[in-house]
Each structure stands twice: as structure tokens, then as C-alpha cells.
Specification:
Blueprint lengths: L2 H28 L2 H27 L14 H29 L6 H23 L5 H30 L4 H28 L9 H9 L4 E13 L2 E10 L5 H16 L3 E8 L14 H4 L2
Parallel strand pairs: 2-3
Antiparallel strand pairs: 1-2
Helix pairs in contact: 1-2, 1-4, 2-3, 2-5, 3-5, 3-6, 4-5, 5-6
Length: about 300
């Protein structure tokens, strides 16, 4: 994430933290536990945004003797932590909602609606900032927290309206359970993607067999094996492979063509390729066989 993306995270952090303070004061003045709880939730979101901003800063640090890739994985680690934190928050919301269904509490509907409307406006603006900024796993995890607050504000407005109109307080925990379910699905999807990156799985939008075929189709390449593609950080893909060729004198041209193909067709620009003179070893699983015209040449 570049400096502009980090500035977006810092702006989102300041806005969220400021409104968390306003909401806490309003909840204390009105004696509203719902508002105080939402203020605590926004404070947690502020922590998540702060962590995301710090991780984005660390990710731009240059390589060192201890970290040859730099600290680009800091963003992925922050996304992992924020995804897990979101699941913990969802569990706490579900627990509180179930308790309130069994023991409804008096809620100041008018105050809840007023503050929730302002909170909705703030959260929508923060979500807009993050959505139009640089898209990384880190920023998406931060956006997930903010979207949780957006839905929470909508649920608070709806429940406040129902309570003012009918006095039926169970609507508040029921809507909270609905919001928790929606956010839970997104949190689990993001967590799966983060774990996939940390396990150095093939990026979900990359077809490994297509990459292998494209490399094997290059003039002068007879076989491709030990092909690996993984994600270093959001937007940065890496590849390593062994290419069997007939003549090492052809390698500079083959290497240039391979880099061009990988960058243009697959968006892979961090490439490590090792040439090997053709051997008589049989094909193995995961190898890409030679082209027909090369085998008959």
C-alpha cells in the first residue's frame, strides 16, 4: 500500500475515533447502554484501523539482512488479526443479543435514532474513503469493520423506530443477530483468503496450469517443472520454475520472453526462473510436456 492508501487509513481512523468519543458522551448523558456499547464497538474499529495504518507503514520498509523481502507481509498479518477480531466481536454481539431476547431492557428509542443517524453518515463516509482507496487484504479487513458499524447503525435506526412506534424492544437484539450473520459471512470469506496467502497457496485468480502451458509454449522451452506461484502481499505475486532448454546460449532470449509473458498475461512480475539443459528424465506429475514442434525438431 502506497502513502496515499496509508493516508486514507489515517483519515478513517481519526473520523471513527472522534465519533466514538461523541457517541460515548451521548450514551453517558442519555443513560443508553446501546449507545455506550456501540461506542465501544467503534473504539475497537478505531484500533483495527490504527493497526491497518501501522501495518501499511511497516510494509513500505525496505528489505534488510533479516527480512530480504522487507515487511510486506505486515499487511497480511494485520488482515489476519482484524479478521479474527471481527469474529470475536460477532460472538460477543450474538451472546449479548441472546441475553437481551430473554431479558428485554428499556431503550431510549429517540436518542438511539438521533445518534445512530449521525453515526451512519460518518461510517458511510469512512467506508467510501476505504472503498475508493488502494484495495489490499489489509484495507479490506479494515473496511469490514466499518461496514459492520454501517449495518449496526442501520439496525439501530430501524430498532429505534420500531420501539418508538410499538414499544417492542426485542427487535433490537433480533436485528443485531441478523447483522452479525451478514458480517460473519464476509469475515469468514476474508479469513479464508488471508490464510490461503499465509499458506503460500496459488492466488485464487491464477490458473497454475495456464501459467505452465504458457511457459512451455515459449520457443526453445522443452519442459517446465517445479512451478510455484504465491502471493507476497496484496498485488505482488511471485513465481519460481525450472525451464528445460536445449542450449544455454538461447537462455537470455527465453528469459526475456518468459518475463514478458508472465507480466502481460498473468500479472506476475517477481519472477525467478532456472534454466536446465534437456535431460532424459521422464515426465513427472506437475510437469508441462514439450511442444509438439520442439519434440519433432
Amino acid at each position: 500500500m502506497g502513502p496515499a492508501g496509508n493516508n486514507t487509513l489515517i483519515a478513517a481512523l481519526l473520523l471513527t475515533l472522534s465519533f466514538a468519543g461523541v457517541e460515548a458522551l451521548a450514551g453517558w448523558w442519555a443513560g443508553s447502554l446501546a449507545l455506550l456499547s456501540d461506542a465501544a464497538h467503534m473504539l475497537t474499529d478505531s484500533s483495527a484501523l490504527g493497526l491497518a495504518a501501522a501495518a501499511a507503514w511497516f510494509a513500505r520498509r525496505p528489505p534488510s539482512l533479516l527480512h530480504s523481502y522487507g515487511l510486506v507481509r505486515a499487511e497480511v498479518m494485520a488482515a489476519l488479526f482484524n479478521s479474527l477480531l471481527m469474529l470475536v466481536l460477532i460472538a460477543s454481539i450474538v451472546h449479548e443479543a441472546i441475553e437481551r431476547i430473554g431479558a428485554p431492557r428499556e431503550i431510549a428509542g429517540g436518542t438511539v435514532i438521533g445518534v445512530a443517524v449521525v453515526g451512519l453518515a460518518v461510517n458511510l463516509f469512512v467506508a467510501w474513503l476505504l472503498h475508493h482507496g488502494e484495495q489490499t487484504l489489509n484495507s479490506r479487513a479494515a473496511l469490514l469493520h466499518v461496514l459492520g458499524d454501517v449495518l449496526g447503525s442501520v439496525a439501530a435506526i430501524a430498532s429505534g423506530g420500531v420501539i418508538l412506534a410499538t414499544g417492542w424492544t426485542p427487535i433490537d437484539p433480533l436485528l443485531s443477530l441478523f447483522v452479525a450473520a451478514l458480517i460473519g459471512v464476509s469475515a469468514l470469506r476474508l479469513l479464508r483468503e488471508v490464510v490461503h496467502v499465509l499458506m503460500e497457496g496459488v492466488p485464487l485468480h491464477i490458473r497454475l496450469d495456464a501459467v505452465g502451458r504458457d511457459l512451455a509454449a515459449l520457443p526453445g522451452v522443452l519442459r517446465v517443472h517445479d512451478l510455484h506461484v504465491w502471493t507476497l502481499s496484496s498485488g505482488t505475486l511471485a513465481l519460481s520454475a525450472h525451464l528445460e532448454i536445449r542450449n544455454l546460449a538461447d537462455w537470455p532470449g527465453i528469459l526475456a520472453a518468459a518475463r514478458q509473458t508472465l507480466g502481460t498475461h498473468h500479472g506476475i512480475r517477481h519472477v525467478t526462473l532456472q534454466p536446465e539443459v534437456l535431460t532424459a528424465q521422464p515426465l513427472r506429475r506437475g510437469d508441462w510436456p514439450p511442444r509438439t514442434d520442439d519434440s519433432q525438431a
